[in-house]
Design goal:
By secondary structure, this protein is mostly beta strands. It has one domain: Beta Barrel (Lipocalin), CATH 2.40.128. The protein contains no helices and 9 strands. Strands 1-2-3-5-6-7-8-9 form an 8-stranded antiparallel beta barrel. A hairpin with a 2-residue loop joins strand 5 and strand 6.
Length: 99
Amino acid sequence: MSLDGSYDCLTKTPMGDQKSVFTVKTDGDSFTGSNVGAMGSLDVVDGKVDGNTLTWKMNMVVPMPMTLDCTATIDGDTLTGTINAGAFGQMPMTGTRQG
């Protein structure tokens, strides 16, 4: 099953729940995409695919510059993952494939 698509996501952050749309476009064992929400658009950096597990980084600018280390597993239309925000710890991320 293809992992490609757009996912309506919810990330539980210290600043409250953040909704976003996470897009995935795989190419072999790598992928590109973005996570777009109220805090702006973050591009996927160094996206890797291992089976149905994705790992990637995002360079956050707002509210402070920080590199986020992310991992997610896609099971059917459900995405479950974590975003590691350094000193702020791990933030759970869940999502559902659109359409």
